[in-house]
Specification:
Elements: H1 3-9, E1 14-17, H2 36-39, H3 43-62, E2 74-84, H4 93-107, E3 130-134, E4 147-151, H5 160-163, E5 174-179, E6 187-190, H6 192-195, E7 204-207, H7 224-232, H8 298-308, H9 315-318, H10 321-326, E8 340-342, E9 346-348, E10 353-357, E11 365-369, E12 373-374, E13 377-378, E14 384-387, E15 391-400, E16 405-417, E17 426-428, E18 441-444, E19 453-455, E20 465-468, E21 478-483, E22 495-502, E23 512-518, E24 526-532, E25 555-559, E26 572-578, E27 585-593, H11 599-603, E28 610-613, E29 622-627, E30 631-638, E31 644-653, E32 656-661, E33 670-678, E34 681-689
Parallel strand pairs: 2-3, 2-4, 2-5, 5-7, 9-16
Antiparallel strand pairs: 1-6, 6-7, 8-10, 10-14, 11-13, 11-15, 12-14, 15-16, 17-27, 18-21, 19-20, 20-27, 21-26, 22-25, 22-27, 23-24, 23-26, 28-29, 29-32, 30-31, 30-33, 33-34
Length: 690
């Protein structure tokens, strides 16, 4: 047998479901590229696929249902692997639950629309008798909700490479991967004969917006999983092995099911459609592309049950009593995890956050604790809480099933910002911050790897800055640094400036730093500046060692394209770093100005303009000034009559905007001065200690 004839012998073992309305490619069951890494187009391996497929056809031809199950359904344990990069493809648990509901309705003739099938087919609408249950035990026997989540840019790949990230044993679970891409289609899988020898390739891949009826999906997309499970249990398309419906040559093929009329296949819901000499095609079949599917036939039911009863691709082990016990789907699950989510983690004071109990399984009672919130406790499944005062707050949830009690507590879970926000001008050099997070700066690190952190390894002014230790393994990942709120309601203009330092790891490193602003406390963000390693971001050249900048390797950036629509009382700033696997990024001396009286006036005031912020001073303060050229500078703290209280700084400083901490802790209340002396003159500014 030639390689070509071998390929034709198992045509149809790979298939994809899609909507004709969507920009996804048609499936191609004769295209075995998805399995090439296994068969390598080797005639011997291709022959093994063809033999497994033929063996299952022989089993199916001779299959007779013996009735010994007494009407009990075949139960299949299922696990959903959500592969995401923190985008919309990270669908909710509820969307998965809804997909399982649709699947069980369709396979047990519980879908409400089956009664609308054309009268000619009503008497062969099948109750297939297969029930799908999310696993409650993982392969190691540990507690699970039957849903895993993996952060990876391979969500945009959707091929076998993505599936290799995580897979549970196919002899115990039906694996379903949900992602941002299904290799260019709405969903795909392989029929049992194709993957009999390669468990790694077994399972179903779905686009996230083809899962269930809720969330990112819709009713019109909800039968894609039903269609793909049909293929997974050895159903072909109604028109046979071709994945191209509507072609006249499809009349020469068949789906090996006697009660589905021979058809060319349909991509529209023409329920009166007839082709290939049949009086009426079964256009409303789940294995069509008509997108008005409502039914399986009795013949299709027999074909699927024959596959489940076979050893091909280990289908018969899935529903065995031993496996149902091992995967936890045959008994009532017990409470094994306390978990919760919320609609937000960062809000302005007075804005509600809704929390959702996602503990599992069998919750009969719960107690929430919200220190600083209103209410401060709750027993609801989805309480809404508001916080009156700015700060960072913990959340605790305790749940019980009447026998077992579990608790989970997360410190620093909620960050509440003031509204109106801080006064400006504002400059942040991180000198008074020991570690993040603090209310002023919150890092967001979805991948739980390196993120923005305070460092004393390098700084443009003072001793500290914030840094991301950027690694090759972080390529494609995003980290954020979010500011507190600032009151810009009286601004005449808004100007953000900052110092930065970055080096490439290779000549092609193209990491990106983006600056966003928000006029509504972070509910929405608007991009205002982007700097890339291939252009303006690189200040330190290329180095393979961990980059630590010198003073001459810092850049200066200004963001001034901020319209009056952002002159609000809850203005915020966000830095977003997209890793390309390059080298480290540093940020220092973040300055926010734009008020009618403030830093901008200081900059224009004279030879050595200075400003003390904040002023009046309570516990911490800094003096800010700008040098046009590098030079030796002396700073002194003076009392109200001009006597020297303490030396602040003496030594060389680079050109540009400077920020130096003032030693105000412990000073008695009153008026003080800072004197700056350098070649060419001196300057003095006053401030008040409260």
């Amino acid at each position: 047998m030639t390689k070509l004839s071998l390929a034709l012998a198992f045509s149809g073992v790979f298939s994809v479901a899609l909507s004709a309305q969507d920009n996804v490619r048609p499936c191609s069951s004769n295209d075995l590229r998805g399995l090439e890494r296994f068969h390598h187009n080797d005639p011997v391996e291709l022959a093994r696929i063809a033999a497994a497929d033929q063996e299952l056809e022989d089993i199916t031809r001779d299959f007779v249902e013996d009735g010994s199950r007494g009407g009990s359904p075949y139960v299949i344990p299922v696990v959903f692997h959500i592969i995401h990069n923190n985008g919309p493809e990270n669908i909710s648990d509820e969307q998965v639950y809804d997909a399982i509901r649709v699947l069980n309705d369709d396979y047990n003739k519980l879908n409400a629309d089956w009664v609308n099938v054309r009268p000619e087919f009503l008497d062969i609408v099948a109750d297939v008798g297969i029930e799908f249950r999310l696993a409650s035990k993982d392969p190691q026997g540990a507690c699970t909700k039957g849903i895993t989540r993996t952060v990876s840019t391979l969500t945009n790949d959707g091929t076998q490479t993505m599936k290799d990230l995580i897979q549970w044993p196919r002899n115990k679970y039906l694996n379903v991967w949900v992602a941002a891409s299904a290799d260019g289609a709405a969903g795909y899988t392989y029929r049992p004969g194709a993957v009999s020898n390669w468990p790694e390739a077994d399972g179903i891949v779905l686009l996230h917006n083809y899962v269930g009826t809720t969330g990112t999906s819709s009713v019109s997309h909800s039968r894609t999983l039903t269609h793909e499970v049909g293929h997974w249990i050895n159903l072909k398309h109604c028109w046979g092995d071709s994945n191209d419906p509507g072609l006249p040559e499809n009349c020469g093929d068949d789906d090996s099911v006697t009660d589905t009329p021979n058809t060319i296949g349909w991509t529209s819901c023409n329920v009166l459609g007839a082709s290939c000499g049949s009086p009426l095609d079964n256009v409303e079949n789940y294995m069509e592309y008509s997108y008005c599917s409502k039914m399986f036939t009795v013949g299709q039911r027999t074909r699927m049950l024959a596959a489940l009863g076979s050893n091909t691709a280990q289908r018969s082990t899935l529903w065995s009593s031993a496996n149902l016990t091992a995967t936890g789907v045959s008994t009532t699950p017990v409470l094994c995890a306390a978990e919760f989510t919320s609609t937000d983690h960062m809000v302005c004071s007075g804005v509600g956050i809704t929390f959702t109990d996602q503990s599992y399984h069998g919750i009969t009672s719960r107690t929430w604790e919200f220190p600083g919130g209103t209410p401060s406790t709750s027993s609801d499944a989805t309480p809404t809480v508001t916080y009156a005062e700015p700060g960072i707050y913990p959340v605790t949830l305790t749940v019980s099933d009447g026998t077992t009690t579990l608790s989970t507590s997360t410190e620093s879970y909620v960050t509440v910002y003031s509204n109106p926000g801080q006064t400006v001008p504002f400059i942040e050099g991180f000198e008074n911050i020991t570690a993040l997070p603090v209310v002023e700066w919150i890092p967001v690190n979805e991948n739980s790897d390196n993120t923005f952190a305070v460092t004393n390894a390098a700084a443009f002014t003072g001793a500290k800055s914030v840094r991301i230790l950027n690694a090759t393994s972080m390529a494609g990942r995003f980290d954020e640094l979010l500011s507190s709120t600032y009151d810009m309601s009286g601004a005449s203009d808004i100007n953000i400036s900052f110092r930065y330092a970055y080096a490439k790891r290779t000549s092609t490193s193209d990491d990106a730093l983006r600056v966003y602003v928000s006029n509504n406390c972070g509910a929405t963000w608007s991009l205002r500046k982007i700097m890339r390693g291939s252009n303006s971001l690189t200040t330190g050249g290329t180095t393979t060692s961990s980059f630590v900048p010198g003073l001459d390797q810092w850049g200066y950036a200004v963001v001034d394209n901020i319209s009056s629509g952002y002159h609000t009382a809850n203005f915020r700033i966000k830095f977003e770093f997209e890793s390309d696997g390059g080298n480290n990024l540093y940020i220092d001396d973040i300055n926010l100005a734009g008020m009618p009286v403030g830093l901008q006036e200081m900059m224009d005031a004279g030879t050595f303009p200075m400003l003390v912020v904040p002023n009046p001073v309570e516990n911490e303060a800094s003096v800010m000034f700008e040098l046009d050229v590098p030079g030796r500078v002396q700073l002194d703290l003076l009392d109200v009559v001009g006597r020297r209280v303490q030396a602040i700084h003496e030594g060389m400083l680079p050109n540009g905007l400077q920020r130096i901490s003032l030693p105000v802790d412990g000073l008695p209340g009153g008026i003080y001065m800072v004197r700056l002396t350098r070649d060419g003159g001196s300057a003095v500014t006053r401030f008040t200690v409260e």
